[in-house]
Amino acid sequence: MKLLVDKLLANHTLPDEEMNLLLASDGSVDDYLYEQAQKVRREYYGNDIYIRGLIEMSNYCRNNCYYCGIRASNTEVSRYRLTAEEILSCCEQGYNLGFRTFVLQGGEDMYYIDDVMVDIISGIRNKYPDCAITLSLGERSYDTYKAYFDAGADRYLLRHETADFQHYSQIHPQNLSAENRQRCLYDLKRIGYQVGTGFMVGSPYQKTEHLVKDLNFIAQLQPQMVGIGPFIPHHQTPFAAFPQGSVVLTLRLIAVLRLMLPAVLLPATTALGTLDPCGREKGILAGANVVMPNLSPVSVRKKYQIYDHKICTGDEAAECRFCLQRRIESIGCRIVVDRGDSKLLSKK
Question: Does the pTM of the predicted model rise above 0.90?
């Protein structure tokens, strides 16, 4: 198995059958895989870990994805949406704590029509010209994405969820398609965004060959960011009884992605920290270099429950920020006050 890791390190790719073998391995090569991934991360980013200030702006959503706790048909959710003033207040607090990237995340809430979002984005851009603005608001039209970009948005996160079209149909309702999701990602690239994609590890009906397809799709897309995390069921969804995803396989995939795309930005996700008390630290030791503390008002955090038992829902922003700093320093890395752009951009 070490030969497969060395081959991936040298070539940034493996044939499908060899990638399948590596992902399905018994774990005996994992330490070596993580060691190589850390070396590559340090080559590009040193021991710097970037922080993004996450602002969960709305838990309204028009969609009914089978795995998501804020799906439209979940009538037990206490819905909320933040005003422009509340979002700017979160940014002000975050800026004072050293955040230089703000991530506006939410369900596909049609209250935020283009004019509303453009005003929010331009308001942040004008007040914080030295910061990056990242959006994670789901599927939109080309013209909407372009309007957001022209208003000052820099990055867009949109997980492709699964590159296998049949698998996509098993975890989404019929009105959603993998084809349209991928169209959105290529639209974002054409417009000029720094693009992030990703998938859940261990989602219902997922097979190892699906993960290999995901990696192939990511290699073709060449995004600046990839976010993956273990599937965690939510009790008010059709997938409530499905088992959670594997932390070990998630870490293995983080390391594989670091070797495939050496300069990519890889978050150690909250989902990892939810399933393992040291999950985010382990993610960094497997090659990740981004963490995303929550800047949302504490009054709404418990309402943005896309999966069960999510951590940090009761912490103030400063608590999240400095707790993560201590954790990251304990493994020999450091949080930096920086926009944290991908090294892919500087190399271009």
Answer: yes
